[in-house]
C-alpha cells in the first residue's frame, strides 16, 4: 500500500463510519466493523476480488461489505425489532411523535428490514452515491446485477410504505 492510499484511507474515515452506522445501526458494531476494515485495508487484504485499481474509499467499502456479509454481523442484525416507541429523528420534534407516524423512521425501518443482499447495494448507490458500476466493483457484481437489486429493493421498500399507509388509513 502506498502512502497516498494510506492517506486516502484516513481521509475516508468519516464516510466509512457513516456507512458502518447505516449498515449495523449500532455504534459498537460499527466501531468493530470500521476497525476490522481498517486493519484489512492497511494489511493490503483485498477482499472478495476487490481490485487494487479501486479507489481507496471503494476498497474500504468492499472490505466492510465482505466482513458484514461473511463474518456474522449480518446474522445479528437479522433480529430486527418491530417499529415501536417515539420518533428519535429530530430532538426538536415533540416527544409525542410516534415512530410509526414519522416518515424517516418508517423509511429507515423498511430499508433495515431488507435482506442484506438488497440493503448493501441500496446503501452504496442511494446513500453513498456510488454509480452502479462503482457499486458493482465494490461488491464484485455486474452493473446490471446492481441495478436490478437496487430496483427490487426500492420496490420492496415502496410496497412496505404503501402497506403501512393503507393500514394507518384504516385506523
TrEMBL record:
GO terms for biological process: DNA-templated transcription initiation. GO terms for molecular function: DNA binding; sigma factor activity. Transmembrane segments: none annotated. Residues 107-155 form the RNA polymerase sigma factor 70 region 4 type domain. Coiled coil: none annotated. This is RNA polymerase sigma factor 70 region 4 type 2 domain-containing protein.
Amino acid at each position: 500500500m502506498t502512502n497516498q492510499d494510506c492517506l486516502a484511507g484516513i481521509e475516508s474515515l468519516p464516510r466509512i463510519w457513516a456507512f458502518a452506522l447505516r449498515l449495523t445501526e449500532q455504534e459498537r458494531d460499527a466501531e468493530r466493523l470500521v476497525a476490522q476494515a481498517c486493519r484489512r485495508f492497511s494489511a493490503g487484504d483485498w477482499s472478495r476480488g476487490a481490485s487494487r485499481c479501486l479507489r481507496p474509499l471503494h476498497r474500504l467499502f468492499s472490505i466492510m461489505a465482505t466482513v458484514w456479509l461473511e463474518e456474522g454481523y449480518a446474522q445479528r442484525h437479522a433480529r430486527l425489532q418491530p417499529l415501536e416507541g417515539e420518533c428519535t429523528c429530530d430532538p426538536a420534534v415533540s416527544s409525542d411523535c410516534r415512530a410509526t407516524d414519522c416518515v424517516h423512521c418508517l423509511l429507515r425501518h423498511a430499508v433495515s428490514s431488507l435482506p442484506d443482499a438488497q440493503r448493501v447495494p441500496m446503501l452504496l448507490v442511494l446513500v453513498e452515491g456510488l454509480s452502479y458500476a462503482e457499486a458493482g466493483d465494490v461488491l464484485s457484481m455486474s452493473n446490471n446485477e446492481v441495478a436490478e437489486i437496487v430496483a427490487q429493493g426500492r420496490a420492496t421498500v415502496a410496497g412496505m410504505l404503501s402497506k403501512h399507509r393503507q393500514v394507518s388509513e384504516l385506523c
